């Protein structure tokens, strides 16, 4: 393999998303090769020994490292402005590894209540089984952060914007409080993507992604990633991944790598379409409220504006008339699909109360602002006017 380093000049984001990490084989192929192999061979017994004791830096086994996965990791790190990146088989594997690799019995974790359902399960159900103390708070309330982080805390985990109610957490303030409490701040940046928000630059220590969402962005495969300092990725996370094995398939890494090349083009289009759709929904009498961080009516619009440079592709809105009205709208749509995925080129809508957040108790749903009339719309790359027409006809039917 020859490393393709065309220049020592610092390259701009668009160039990095197309070229960072690129390395070519002796065939000089243009496009990145797929290394669909689990193992590697050694020229001698001595070489094998040196590969294992670390004196030789080379591929040993694809649970540890794979050339195609390594290109994906390097490119995503270059986009995020992180020292290092480790890829995982799914977003949940990334969340799980980022938390468990650094926690032990007796530690304390603080998180907002507004989280993706499986993140709530890991933090609220799994971690306490191993003697880890967990406190959930209202992530939009600075006083609650100050109180919760007035005690030593090892990890703070949060999503901003959150799924599905698009709550915004003040990253710089929470990072400062987390560090005072002696902990690391882990941010699930799925809704914002590396294009619209850079948590590390605001003080976060670790960023996690479900690459299944906008990074693939075309509904093809699962993947995840954890980014942070080289010290965290190599010494804390590295051994955990190496020995527990949530490795990303080289084929999926290649698909995600191709996704990265068009990431900014796609998410800018998602966001522009989402803005159009959010404004349209806000104008409709059938809709009780619209949640989109870009709208001035969003309760934390000012904060969103200060820490994001775009507002993403997800819009949540509440139908007057509760579940019946929400179901009628879903069943009346002809272009927008009913699906629980998000960040896809196709517009997808779901009813969180009965799908993604079904397992929560009615009290937990109320705390998170998930009502029976709430719908979460992941706005795709179609023509925005067709999406508005589809919603208008379904609202009027
Ligand atoms: C989808 C999602 C995940 C989980 O990712 P998978 O790739 O489905 O495992 C985690 N966090 C957020 C915010 C998500 O939207």
Automatic annotation (TrEMBL):
The record ties this protein, via CDD domains, to: CGS_like
Q: Which GO terms describe its molecular function?
A: carbon-sulfur lyase activity; pyridoxal phosphate binding; transferase activity, transferring alkyl or aryl (other than methyl) groups
Instruction: Please give the catalytic activity noted in the UniProt record.
Output: O-succinyl-L-homoserine + hydrogen sulfide = L-homocysteine + succinate
Asked if the keyword Amino-acid biosynthesis belongs to this entry, the reply reads yes
Q: Which InterPro entries match?
A: Cys/Met-Metab_PyrdxlP-dep_enz, O-succ-hSer_sulfhydrylase, PyrdxlP-dep_Trfase, PyrdxlP-dep_Trfase_major, PyrdxlP-dep_Trfase_small
Q: Which domain of life is it from?
A: Bacteria
Entry keywords, A to Z: Amino-acid biosynthesis, Methionine biosynthesis, Pyridoxal phosphate, Transferase
EC class of this enzyme?
transferase
Q: What does this protein do?
A: Catalyzes the formation of L-homocysteine from O-succinyl-L-homoserine (OSHS) and hydrogen sulfide.
Show the HAMAP family listed in the entry: MetZ (MF_02056)
The record's note on quaternary structure and interaction partners says: Homotetramer.
**Record's protein name:** O-succinylhomoserine sulfhydrylase
- Which source organism does the UniProt entry give? Magnetospirillum aberrantis SpK
Question: What gene name is listed for this protein?
Answer: metZ
């Amino acid at each position: 393999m020859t490393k393709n380093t065309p220049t020592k000049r610092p390259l701009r984001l668009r160039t990095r998303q197309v070229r960072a990490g690129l390395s070519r084989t002796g065939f000089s192929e243009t496009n990145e090769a797929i290394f669909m192999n689990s193992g590697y061979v050694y020229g001698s017994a001595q070489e094998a020994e040196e590969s294992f004791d670390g004196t030789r830096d080379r591929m040993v086994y694809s649970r540890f490292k794979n050339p195609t996965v390594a290109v994906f990791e390097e490119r995503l790190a270059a986009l995020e402005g992180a020292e290092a990146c480790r890829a995982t088989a799914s977003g949940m594997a990334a969340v799980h590894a980022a938390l468990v690799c650094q926690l032990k019995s007796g530690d304390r974790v603080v998180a907002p209540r507004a989280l993706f359902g499986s993140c709530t399960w890991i933090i609220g159900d799994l971690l306490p089984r191993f003697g880890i103390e967990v406190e959930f708070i209202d992530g939009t309330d600075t006083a609650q952060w100050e109180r919760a982080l007035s005690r030593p805390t090892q990890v703070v985990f949060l999503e901003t914007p959150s799924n599905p109610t698009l709550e915004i957490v003040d990253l710089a303030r929470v990072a400062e409080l987390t560090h005072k409490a002696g902990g690391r701040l882990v941010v699930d940046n799925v809704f914002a993507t590396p294009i619209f928000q850079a948590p590390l630059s605001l003080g976060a220590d670790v960023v996690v992604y479900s690459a299944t969402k906008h990074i693939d962005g075309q509904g093809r495969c699962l993947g995840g990633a954890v980014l942070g300092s080289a010290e965290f990725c190599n010494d804390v996370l590295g051994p955990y991944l190496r020995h527990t094995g949530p490795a990303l398939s080289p084929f999926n890494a290649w698909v995600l790598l191709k996704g990265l090349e068009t990431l900014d083009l796609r998410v800018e289009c998602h966001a522009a379409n989402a803005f159009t759709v959010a404004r349209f929904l806000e104008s409709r009498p059938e809709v009780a409220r619209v949640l989109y961080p870009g709208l001035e009516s969003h309760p934390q619009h000012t904060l969103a504006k200060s820490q994001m440079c775009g507002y993403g592709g997800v819009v949540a809105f509440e139908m007057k008339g509760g579940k019946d009205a929400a179901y009628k709208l879903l069943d009346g749509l002809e272009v927008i699909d009913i699906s629980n995925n998000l960040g896809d080129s196709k517009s997808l809508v779901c009813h969180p109360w009965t799908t993604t957040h079904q397992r929560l108790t009615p009290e937990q749903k109320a705390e998170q602002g998930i009502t029976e009339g709430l719908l979460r719309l992941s706005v795709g790359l179609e023509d925005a006017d067709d999406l508005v027409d589809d919603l208008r006809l379904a609202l009027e039917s």
